[in-house]
Amino acid sequence: MPRNAVIGVDIGTSSSKGVLVGLDGALIRSAVREHRPARPGPGHFEMDASVWWREFTELARELTGPGDTTVVAVGVSGMGPCVLLTDEHDTPLRPAILYGVDTRSVRQIERIEERLGAEEIIRRSGSALSTQAAGPKIAWIAEEEPELYARARRLYMPSSWLVRQLTGAYVLDHHSASQCTPLYDTHACEWYAPWAAEVAPGIELPPLAWSGEAAGTVTAEAARETGLPAGIPVTTGTIDAWAEALSVGAQNTGDLMLMYGTTMFLVHTVPKPLTSPSLWGTVGALPGTRNLAGGMATSGAVTNWLRDLFDGADHTELTRLAAESGPGAGGLLMLPYFSGERTPVMDPHARGVIAGLTLSHTRGDLYRAALEATGFGVRHNVEVIEEAGGDIRRVVAVGGGTQGSLWTQIVSDITGRPQELRTITIGASYGGALLAAQLVGDASVDEWNPVRETVTPRAENTARYDALYALYRRLYPDTADAVHTLAALQER
Q1: Helix 118-125, helix 106-116: angle, nearest 10
Q2: Is 396 helix (H, G, I), strand (E, B) or coil?
Q3: I need a surface site. Which of 218, 264, 395, 485 has the fewest CB within 10 A?
Q4: CA-CA distance, 172 to 177, in Å (whole number)?
Q5: Rounded distance, CA 473 to CA 33, Å?
Q6: Cα 386 from chain centroid?
């Protein structure tokens, strides 16, 4: 007799991932579809929404193909905040503009701040305006593509687009809405109509629900396309990093989740709303939770770039060479700002810097420098979180970059903080499956996904990294003028 199970699917920057999970948390199967965002201009990152739905249907059919399970609920998540605008018939009008890796909306940020006031935006919305926020991206479309915008009626993100295709519902989770700065009031936990009318005129903003609430049930049409049973519930879903945090139980006050992926994300759970001009203050994925969050624009993206430069050498081999390089990467120091930088630098015109290169440096040195650059960026974010009033008591790591021990060990050595690793570190898709299971029964993350190990910092390396971190902090201000000039040349 087929066993009952749930499906979780996450639409990420580099791939879509799906998992089939038993109601006891056991991973039955997983599947992946790789993709790449389009880059139609400098600082532009886009993706066609048809990719999200096509890959969901492929993943669902692959995961359920053997016929040994009965799927009883679906959980979804995705990268964000993204901006997909549709007309009144829910036909996408253009490819979706992706989250903070897309830096096109700088001028719109300046204009919105002039109209609404930068400090008032932080006070009401929890975050300063940045290229991470959805509001300026909507304004960019309105200003740069006015004929298209005139037909725009609805706003979707990857997770809410999957919900629409599966259930017919138009809904967005509160957390994703709180990253639509300045459209959402984080104190009232609702859309703020005056600013929505100012920044996104004519858009019917979606009704709001919490991530773990049922958005609806799978329609007969969606069942035919996906092979899933009609009538089963679908979660409202959320942004991938928050689903990742749920997958490893990092949602209690004092927890900090580190997501090792194409980008690095940090989510710290706080007891009350905190704000910082260099971080994002958001509501959490679960009712009553609050977060202070940060994100680096690149992390795994840099290691993938290096792999491609090195004729496709695999990550396992490059990690081995990086381990041989040793702490300090043979005297190399990297700024990982290859797509600008989000927190805490908040500079879309920042660029990558590799300092100290000589003819004797190797692939292993460069790869190690990239891993260490992420560690230095994490430390910078952690310091700013604590300066803003955060109280980090536990660090939990998740994501593809936790496979193998070198990267997590480097980050612990640089930050001086232990990192907890759970048994399953797949991340957002598993978190989506957990929320789906909670729709149909009791599912505890500690029972589903117990702690496997704790990575502890090595004192001898931490002392050495302290000196390198001081140089890292100097490198950005010392090179910013030259880098900004180069960025302007690139954009022209």
Answers
A1: 90
A2: strand
A3: 485
A4: 7
A5: 38
A6: 21
Tell me the average pLDDT across 276-295.
Answer: 95
Say what the alpha-carbon torsion angle 160, 196, 99, 40 is, to the nearest 10 degrees. 100
Which secondary structure element, helix H or strand E, spans residue 19, and what is its range? Answer: strand 15-22
Residues for the chain: how many in total? 492
The tokens describing 20, both together, are 């089939």
SS (H, E, C) 241-306: HHHHHHHCCCCCCCEEEEEECCCEEEEEEECCCCCCCCCEEEECCCCCCEEEEEEECCCHHHHHHH
For residue 359, the 8-state DSSP code is T
pLDDT digits (tens, 9 = 90+) for 299-310: 999 999 999 999
Mean pLDDT for the stretch of residues 457-462: 96
Residues 6+ apart with CB under 8 A from 172: 155, 156, 157, 160, 205, 206, 207, 208, 209, 236
Instruction: Give the pLDDT of residue 1.
Output: 80
Structure-token pair, residue 397: 């790591």
The confidence band for 481, taking pLDDT boundaries of 50, 70 and 90, is: very high
Task: Encode pLDDT of 206-229 as tens digits.
Answer: 999 999 999 999 999 999 999 999
Q: What is the pLDDT of residue 400?
A: 86
Contact 125, 185 (CB under 8 A): yes
Q: Please state, in angstroms and as integers, the Cα–Cα distance from residue 66 to each residue in 32, 235, 239, 421, following that order.
A: 17, 24, 30, 31
Backbone angles phi, psi at 325, to 5 degrees: -60, -40
